[in-house]
Amino acid sequence: MSAASDVGYHAQRHARWHYGEIAFWVIVLACGFLFPSRYLIMTDIVRLALFAMSLDLILGYAGIVSLGHAAFFGVGAYAAGLLSLHGIITEPVLALIAAGLAAMVLGFATSFLVIRGVDLTRLMVTLGIALLLEALAERFSNITGGTDGLQGIEMQPIFGTLAFDMFGKTGFFYSVAVLFLLFLLARRVVHSPFGLSLRAIKNNPLRAAAIGIPVNRRLIAIYTLAAFYAGIAGALFTQTTAIASLDVFSFERSADLMLVLVIGGTGYLYGGLIGAVVFRMLQELFSTITPQYWQFWIGLVLVVIVLLGRERLHRWVLFVPNLIIKQVAGRKAVIAVPESDA
Amino acid sequence: MTSILTNLFDGVAYGMLLFVLACGLAVTLGLMNFVNLAHGAFAMAGGYVCMLLVNKSGWPFFAALPLAFVSAAVIGVLLERTLYRHLYTRSHLDQVLFSIGLTFMSVAAVDYFMGSSRVFINLPDALQGQFDFFGVGIGRYRLMIIVICGLLTVALQLILAKTRFGSRLRAAVDDPRAASGLGINVPQVFAFTFAFGCGLAGLGGALSAEILGLDPYFPLKFMIYFLIVVTVGGSSSITGPFLASLLLGIGDVAGKYYVPKMGPFVIYTMMIVILIWRPNGLFGRTAAR
Question: Which residue in B91, B107, B265 is closest to A135 by CB distance?
Answer without folding.
Answer: B265
